[in-house]
Fold these 3 entries.
Entry 1:
Amino acid sequence: MNPFSSGTRLRDMIRAIRTCKTAAEERAVVRKECAAIRASVSENDQDYRHRNLAKLMFIHMLGYPTHFGQMECLKLIASSGFPEKRIGYLGLMLLLDERQEVLMLVTNSLKQDLNHSNQYIVGLALCALGNICSAEMARDLAPEVERLLQSRDQNIRKKAALCSIRIIRKVPDLAENFMGPAAALLKEKHHGVLITGIQLCTELCKASAEALDYLRKYTEGLVRVLKDVMSSPYAPEYDISGITDPFLQIRMLRLLRMLGHGDPDSSDCMNDILAQVAAKTESNKNAGNAILYECVATIMGIEATSGLRVLAINILGRFLSNRDNNIRYVALNMLMRAVSVDTQAVQRHRTTILECVKDSDASIRKRALELVFVLVNENNVKPLTKELIEYLEVSDPEFKADLTDKICSIVEKFSLDKLWFTDQMLKVLSEAGNYVKDEVWHALIIVISNAPDLHGYTVRSLYRALQSSGEQEILVRVAVWCIGEYGNLLVNSIGVLEGEEPMTVTESDAIDVVESALQCHTSDVTTRAMSLIALLKLSSRFPHCSQRIREIVFQQKGNLILELQQRSIEFNSIILKHDNIKSALVEPMPVLDEATYAGKRAGSAPATASLEKTGKPTGPATGLNLPNGVAKSAPAAPLIDLLDLSSDDAPAAASSTGDFLNDLLGGGLTTNLSISGVNQVPTGSADILMDLLSIETTPQNNQSMPNVMSTTIDNLPSVSPLDSLSLNSSPALSTQTAEGSVTGFLKETAGPTGPTKSMAGPAPVVDLLDDLSSNSPMPAQNPTYPSIVAFQSNNLKIMFSFSKLPEEPQVTEIQATFTNLSPHVYTDFIFQAAVPKFIQLHLDPASSNILPGGGIGSIRQSLTITNSQHGQKALAMRIRIAYKVNNQDVLEQGQINNFPSGL
């Protein structure tokens, strides 16, 4: 016989495929076999149709396409013989699914077979319908299935019940048709029919609230059935490990849980039987444990009595002592749900749960830790925290992170007093400081700063902890911060608490600790930067050690990390040249409000003033009054937020307010703002003043124009004036750019540090603190200042010229000259500027709003700046220029930081 013909037996084809040594050989065999099957199909070969379909099913299971044989399934189903129908229905279930349109052709055959006199053919049809039934088929064939639920044959009733489940899932509206027949199945004696009937009732309860109310009337009958199954004599066909039909018992318990949920009357009916199941079921076999677990879930899901709930939780407690990890895990899961029902009963098993935290299985440890976290309250927080911290010492490294996080959360949430909170956090930092998150030690520092009575005790405790746990990075940071703030309390033994162990620490010892943190090769940049700040503070706290501190700080001047190098140079200059103001610069950090920090940590930032709060109109505007005498309608794309220099948003629609004064600083935030001759200081009911140069303020309503070119003067992302930079509150004293440029409040150093390169072009480079020094030279009576290139791009150049009156040193007159470097003419030219709140800015009208191209002509505009903190804060300005090129809106923006000194 040809091995590739319709007459080939299935076993021969399987043998040929299995003898293939490569995938290519297998594909060749399958391809030839499929070709033979296609030829047989085209010839309408009825003798081998069932054999061909069997081969197709095997080929389908190998993953090859077999769609060409779908019609063969329908032909076999339509045949009269049982063997052909069996192969046809098997192929139908395997080769097709409910999404195939071919199924519409089989509905009539299914209907005929459901009414067939042969019970086996009826069974085939029910089995196929239960596997591939679609919503349309369910509606068409539901009456036949409902009728078969009352058949005399047990197998037919069982298969009809399973088929009904599929129909209800596809069409929940048909649930009411099956309520009566499903309830009748609960009286069956045959366990196979009974378990399918219970499953059908469960599905009805899920699909319809009406069916749930209807089936609650049969609760007592279901309880009797469960009791009979429990007390039935030994039956070999149902016995598993000495328990009669545990599968049936579990199904009944699940149905009882649904019937008793939220219904006290139904719950009362089943309380006794649940107690019997919990008490009489043996727990030394998996079958018994499965029943007990389901019984506990049922007790927790219904309106059970308190005694029954205690019994259920005690069963879970026994599960926790089981040697099987799976049983312990499901017990912990169930206890997590039981905590909300009866916390006190779960608390009795706290010791066992704590032991599970120390289990070798990672899943059990994690789940037990979550349960312990839920069980913590004000009464047991101390012993539970003590146990967890003790285990933290010996826990696995991969588990320390989760354990540390939970302990910190428990201590923060249930801290009894600040002394206890500080002690527990120091223990955590000593054992697992490297796993503590940043927000945790930030919160610890805030708590320490708010407890003045504990400053001395805390700094001494941290000093002791460093002696034994110096490798914990976060502990070192907190200790360095506290020594910098409260070093005098450490040295002078101030604030000693009762029972505290006395210790003697000299100024040199305190500096040694900070120096070791600075020079440790494992310390990161943040720790070293905080160490430098601490040394700067200690130079004021310990005047006799100022020279040694300066030498330690000066050693970092050649550090490869630019941040540390700059700090070293700037701090060295402060210690060497500005001793008269050093104590004011490094005075103790102000106390931070704990509630405010907690709100920020939770993500609740202060609300930004909206247009409604500032009293600005919220309706659409008809036009904009632009400066330079130009009146035009609202632009298609308003100017982007002046403060958002990093915005790359796509062009947005026009603002609904139609007033770009509201939009300039973003969403109602107020600042001193002048636009082309309009000196305007907006105010509102919500007095919200924003520092223009604050890098932490995020503007709102950022919008951009079609063509946006952004240039930042000196390649600096932001300006940090000295008043906004607290040496004793922030570990970051400067901004480092991607190009390696460095800005800070010191541009020139003295002494052994040597000069540094200025990035400000023609502007003179001086120490901004020189004005505060007593030995600084007095400014000239009629100072002259060089002109600067305030802004320059490929298309535009802006020059600033300065003049001042001797009697008004805080007032500066600026003459701005705008030059067009491109060959195109700029129209509708608008210049806008924004300054910090301590500066007042007045802009006179520009000489024109048309800027010729090629650098031939220019536009001039005068600016008057009044610096209310002259000599203390330097000038800074952000600008943007809007114009049109060939009727296309263009926007350029920048930041000016290179103003000459003395302005």
Entry 2:
Amino acid sequence: MCAKELVLKHRTQILDALCDSGSAEYLARVLDLLLAHGQVQWEEYQAVQIQSRTLYSNGRQLLDLVHIKGERTCELFLCALKQVLPETLAAGLRFDGSGSNVAESEPAQSSAAQTLLTQRPRLVGLLQDCVDGALDTLVGAGHLTSVDCSQIQLAIHTPSQKARCLLDHVRGKGESAAELLLQYAEQHHNSASKQVTVKPSAGFLKYRSKLCSSVTAQSCFLSTYGGTGHMSLDDIYTEGEMELSPDSTDGRRALALEDVVGTIGTVNEEADAVLVSGDAGSGKSTLLQRLHLLWARGEALVEYLLLFPFSCRRLNAVEQNMSVKELLFQQCCWPDREQEEIFQYIIDYPHLVIFTFDGLDELKQSFSDEHRVCCPTESAPVHVLLFNLIQGYLMKGVRKVVTSRPEAVGPMLKRHLRKEVLLKGFSTSGIDCFVRKQHSDPTVATKVLGSLKANTVLLGLCHSPVLCWIVSHCYKELLGCGEGSPQTITDVYLMILQHFLQHKSSQRSSSRWLQEHQKAILHLGQLAFKGVKTSCFVFTARDLDACGVSENDIRLGFLVQSKDMSSSQSKRYEFPHLTLQCFFAALYSVLPSNGDRSNILMLFDMKETGGACFRACLLSPDQQNRLCEREVMASETSNLQITATFVSGLLSQRHQSLLLQFCPSHVIEKKVKQVAKSISKGMQNHFKSIPQPVEGEKKSMHAMPGFVWLIKCIYEMQESKIAKDAMVKLEVDHLKLVYCNIGPMECTALAYVLQHLKNPVGLQLDNNSVGDVGVEQLLPCLHICSSLYLRNNNITDEGIRKLIAKGVQCESFKKIALFNNKLTDASMSDFAHLLKTKQDFDSIRLGNNYITEVGAKRLAEGLRCNSSLKYLGLWGNKVGDDGAQAFAEALQGSDTLVWLSLVGNNIGSLGACSLAKIIKNCTSLEELWLTENHITRSGVECLIEALQENTKVKSVWLRKNNLSSEEKQEMASRESRLIF
């Protein structure tokens, strides 16, 4: 189809794309390109851009003009569209064979005025950031007057519009004016500083000061776990572990706070939104609060002049339609004067503004791109504004930082992200730092940390900042519990419940502390349960009255007044943390003896949707779009799953003495059976979905996130019979739980359940957050693991030391993979011990760690004594020639080694000659990988000589070494098993 026909056929789509942003910028940029290429005359250019007409009318005028001009103009027009429109809009326009780019024309003559036309797109880009400077230069030279400047600097003009207006004026001022402007543009382009020259007015600066004061007031005290006392954020803030998402080009690297908004990890340059994702309680809100405070003080994000913070749970309460302007000023900080000027500044300099939206998953409406709003003064429902802001249709250029739990983020939203940052909670050192900050008395802090280290399960729980806060806050209860130390999440929340209630109780030592506050708990529980079902997290006085919540109930401390930056005078309340609301909802589901049994059924009878993201990888784009509705369901069930986990814990045998104060034993037993049946049914549904294995391969199950949730429910119940009944029906050789947000808490639950498997299983936990503490939690099930895959899990030598100490005692344990962790030479002594002790161990893969020739020599001591190892992978380390020689001496007599990888290890020809001994003397070797090293011809000659004596070796990989093309060709002709 010719270009002219394409323009006519796709007229509506093109028009929508050109006018998509509500700004004339796309239209103007396309015109610039056509003008520069000589396809549009100056008079036609002006006729298309008439300000009194609507944007769509101007767009139609351009389409008519292009179509009339014929095939060549249409072809260049389609190319210009592809060049100008962002990927999200251009992706919907398929113009096969219409070209890909429009090069700017070279000046047809030496006229500077003509160059202003032929180089117009480039000059607009150069000048839009320095119009003021250009005007000063031209006025100083007498080429422009103050009247000219006032016409160019109209407040309604964007920076690019001012640049175009400047070019238009200068063209009419003669050749010398044009030459001076071109000279200024090139000088500015070549200068070291390319920053926008911004001269804020006094009114703007006053508003900025007011905004900073407002943000400081909202941020200086820790609010995430609010209501229990004023804790200075400076005193208590502890940075959690952050990583880039796996799709980042910068890899899974650790990040600092300032990197959240920085350029590191950017995957989509066109997008404005940064997502910070993490599980409930991982510290997302506190991280944002810290960023807010540092910005307000001028200690971070200094490149942004304005920051507007929003809470999605509070935006839920906004019922009326709003424009972006109203959203900013009514919900954040109202300007005392000059509102229009301040908002125009935001429109003109979006790159100097940042919006933050905390808790996207707490919004009642799930993410959608169905409703389009492009004009910042157009009113729409608040959630529609938010979704359009994230997508960049509104306020393009403003940086947006959004937090959410992972399950609320599907492919539909991820298409619009600049990057994603994963928040992993506290490291072990972070726990130590946080606890010490909580207690001014170092003796108390030391005792609390001692209790945690003595109970590794509790230490694993404390990797969640909210649980670490609870444990620190309830240290007296913790230190006094002896062997009854908390083991589950429910135990920890019951501890804080006891802490609050006994401080309000008339008899603090009473064992009936729960019963004394029964009515209050049920009132709060009913409020919490209704909120969880309807995604409501901020409650009005009417909501409280409907559930019978009184002032006395509020004084218990479980409801706190909501911080609201708007001018609303009505009081609103919320639970200090989402998980606490879910806990009270669980109490409400469990406690009443005449309660509605359907509550528990509703919590557990949820369809499996958590694996939608994984399955989407295997589907077509149309099928992925149909999954969006299921992803919406998944995000909405998350809070119900947290509540169901607490229900499981409350119904455990260890807490039934508390429940007996409210319910007869037969009622409790009925609820326990109900939950156990629901869990069993859920597990069976997972097992039914396991596909039959391909002939010759092992039977594998890729567990979905819902499977992990059910495992956690079983652990919370602490019923070994339920765990046994669940696992007896799982018959697989390989269990995969990759990218499932597995941290230390989940490892504890997995070990509790998986230890009841009948037969050994390969356990794959790649790309999670296991860490050293998680490794320790897995030890109880290591005897049932035939293999353990722990790629990308932040594991250090300390975790490996404990793992191997247990592994040498486990008969079935025979394979381990630890790519991309933090192992050093120190851990190689442990692996040597493993190889010496277990003569049936057959696979060790330690790629991309920090192992040098020192570690290689230590590992070689174990290899020398082992007679079973088949696969050894150490790619991406730094063993060098000395390490290679140590391996050669240890492995040259092996009759089991099949595969050896030393890719990217700084090995030269000396090392290659040593490794040739393995080829010559190892009768079992099939593959040797030496890619990305520094081997020269002399080293390859040694390998060729060895290969002539060993016909069983299938391949030696030598790509990316120090060899010329001629050498590769010549040596490959001599030995076909060399792969260059």
Entry 3:
Amino acid sequence: MRLYLLCGVFLIGLHSAAIAAHPKVQHSERKLNTLDPVSLQEVAAQELRYRLPSYIVPTHYKLYLETQVHTGNRSYSGSVDIHLDIRQQAKTIYVHQRGLRITSNELYASNPNTNLTFLETLRYTEDAEREFAVFAIRRALAPASYVLHLDFEGELRVDDDGFYLSSYLDANGTRKYVASTQFQAISARAAFPCLDEPALKATVELGIKHHPSYKAVSNMPIFAEAGDLDGNVVTYFETTPRMSIYLLAFLVSDFLYTENEAAAQRVYARPNAINQTLYALEAGVRIMDALDEHIGLPYRSYMPKVDQVALTQFSAGAMENWGLCKYREEVLLFEPGVTTYRAQTTITTIIAHEYVHQWFGNVITNEWWSYLWLNEGFATLYEFLGADMAYPERQYRDLFNVQVVQRVLITDAAESTRPMTFSRGATFNAILSLFDNVAYSKGGSVLQMFRLLLPDAAWRQMLRTYVQGNEFGTVNTDNFVAALTEAFDGVVSLPEGTDVERFVHSWVNQAGYPVLEVRRSYRGEIILSQDRFYSNKIVNNDFTVWVIPYTMMEQGDAQDALLEWQWMTSKAVRVPSSTPNDEWILVNVNQTGFYRVNYDPSNWYMLIQTLLEDTAAIPMHSRAQLIDDSFHLARSNRLDLEIALELLGYVRHEREYPPWEAANRVLGYFHGRMRGQPDYILYELFVDTLIGDVFVTLDITTVAPDERLLEKYLRQVISSWACRMEIESCLTATRDALEREVFDAEPVHPDVSAVVYCYGLRTAPTVAFQYLFGKLLGSDNRGERQLLINALGCANDTEQLSSYLLAAIGGELQVNFNAEERLSILQSVLSSRQGVDALIEFLTENYTYVVSLLGPNALANLVQSIATSTNTLDEEQMLIALLEQLNSVLPASVSASARTTASINLAWPSTREGLLLRYFLERYNFQPVQSDTVLQHDA
């Protein structure tokens, strides 16, 4: 599953594609995040209460459902034959169910010839807390095969979970209804009674009765369709391979599809969006072909087809159901002339993510949710590698470090982070909380480190060994270690006393990650030491030790030279060095290892000098790493902030996106702290200096036909900062481009639309705002709608912002916003201080409507965002007045947290970090490039 951030991007163009996160995940993770040993023991004991007994094993389901979803009717009924292997004498059968009504049951004995013998109708009780139906048997069952037949009734859910109801408006404005599924992690039980744990794999035979105007689609191809006497149709599907029940999926709708018959792939969408499916079909075919060749185990040796479905309502973002992948519309549909390059990147990488799951997650599945990283880590790594193999000219793999590794290095530095292998229990929220950055981004980053230790051919052989050795089964860390051990044999030389198991476990069973301290004696030695890296402190008594692989590059080394892997297995070690004292060394080249690296000041300054004089002498991904590492090392007091700032200064010579994206995050952090301060102008001059040399080379409103993907990313980062710093030529160019679309019907290219629309509005006439708002109301493209929502939030006119915010709580008849879009509108104005002020005024008068429409959590999150943007005493007073107004609806803890956040922000200028930054800015006479036309600020 690819979880996707539902809320809007606040600062247009200043952030890369959003890290995936589900709102429910974030909520539950805050409650359950603990590594206390006593708490973990309690969690383990509680988990056993919610787990099925091991003596009951399902082997096959024969499932039948009847739905009238075409009318919008939520009621449905069904029956299921659960074939069970009872492995010890038993008087009780446990079956999962959530919110269903079991109307009848029958238990049968099954002999080897598949003949059934009726035994009895069972008494049962419901355990709602543990979501069990517990069937009591009059006479104990001997170990054998049995069939439990259940008839049941249910209602389609309305929370995008289980078997749920959604809808869309067709081309005529008529509401059409859809029945769809989302079972991961434990919601198959909400659709029909089953044994809902990932290790309990079984085959599934499915039939669905529905209106003939609708079609049903599921994991497998259709076996037969038969008309019923009542005028309805029953669609029967071929039996699935042995699989985890959460991977079962079906859809009942009037959707249409496009097809590549030779590749056995289809893409389904609502009829009025079917013309937006062609790219997803093309990308799906190319990515599957690439993965088939790379893994060497063709997909169609396991499954006969794969379909993709674009849904208007889908909480997960995307889901890898075997043979039937589902997506939110905005991460699958592509409309030429409308969809941006960033959206196309998201579409391509998410398809790759779900397709690699067909092997890693479906053919083999995590044994329990504690091993989720074995599913999601591979998918996160290959969403970039798979996309890159399908479209090598786009260089998708060059996005991995800055969009995955560096981001999770930030979150995984918290004291509350968890190990990769970890369980919080077996309840819905406990399991859902594991779908986090550790499972996804850290899992992918650590697997990338393992991958790069091996030659490509050896890694690919490891993949085949791992999958083939466990196919149609489940896996844990031991299975992965076994396959990696075989791959390492004779290829990778581990240090004495260390085996693959110890190496792997040091990364997957321990929380956090290390910082590798590299201290040169300048007398022929290097002292290496490791310590767990925390974002907010230095810990010298932490005895955690990782088995760290590292490479070392010396000044003057060729970048294509094959570097030797070396190993760090203790807290500290002295190693000989022949590097001349006046030349630098670079460790963890291209950030292949999942850790940070710190150097002694002399080595840092030699690296800085080379970056200033000969930028390309240091590899591109290492340049991005040096920016990211130095900033976070400085923030944790492991490095002098001045060194990090001087290193950042080199980016005025940088022309590649990855280092600039790392710099972008640093500049964004300091901008958030400096805005509103008396000497903010010094920071503006600093940013102007850094971007100036690059900015003058860019045409920020047009796109060349042969432009590289990474050039588009670079332009958006630089032009966003130029306009944000109110450089006149940037504001003028974006305004002119926006006005050409408004008045001359000359469309803005989608790849520059985010910056043009956002910053063009700052100086364009009111009619431009009205035009974009009308464009939003007239669009049925989810991706374009979100871009326009974000852009409109960039306006700095008070009346425009007030009207826009009021539109977010307008009724269904006034605007066609769904609940997520309403929240996105409120969030979008946070991109400027004028917007924050407008939001405060809006919430003061309309908070009751926000709570009723979007819920109390939405209000709490908005208040916390306002607090984060509070930097001055006047702003603090506005926040306090708002909190007092919301006193009756806002939890005391939220109000206290907001006050604390604002207090920390106001105190920042007098902190060590704040003082050092101001000292640095005052000492250096930053000068923009000599071009008044380009870098003139508004008066």
